[in-house]
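New to this. Explain these tokens.
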Amino acid sequence: MIELDHVTYGYAEVKVSFSLAVAPSTFAAIIGPSGGGKSTLLSLIAGFLTPASGHIRLAGADMAGVPPARRPVSMIFQDHNAFAHLDLWRNVALGISPSLRLDGAQRKLVDRALERVGLSALARRLPGEVSGGERQRIAIARALVRDRPILLLDEPFAALGPALRADMIALLGEVQRERRLTVLIVTHDPQEARRAASHTAFLADGRILAYAETEKLLVRKDLPELARYLGDG
């Protein structure tokens, strides 16, 4: 479960206030105009930002004062998910130990994660020697070995072409179902939300204006902000 209870945060001209409850094992998308606070929402959940007020609960535990490394969360960004000087195997192994000192069982976890995302044959390649989609698969494999129940993704596939994006979304959906992860993905593409997510939150001007089953949300006509965002208003 991801719960945000009147969580507020402000810097410069940006002021946000979030309330949201995402049930366990849900694949949820976050859509909305640029600058509305989508990345801020993920950063608050992950612990990279500290709220001014309100409460964040993850997997039933209050996160007040809990640093990012101790939260039950993995996060994947649009880029900077791989260390250029380490091969793919070691990039994934970092999810278990920053020192890369792994025992036999842990090494097998890395091997299985690479196999699951289709990178076994490329394990000894450097990130610069593989495609953008393959670099994003590294991030998914790393999340698998971290074995955290919540996965946050901030526009992870925005730089990929349509076909590759569809493939990555399909892989992410398979992993989510297999591991029963709670997934929150920021996307600028409502159709991507429709393909991937059972539920979607619409965020604008620093507030979550609606959260519902994706199909029901995307046909709502009673929210002018949503209509404008979708091009219906």
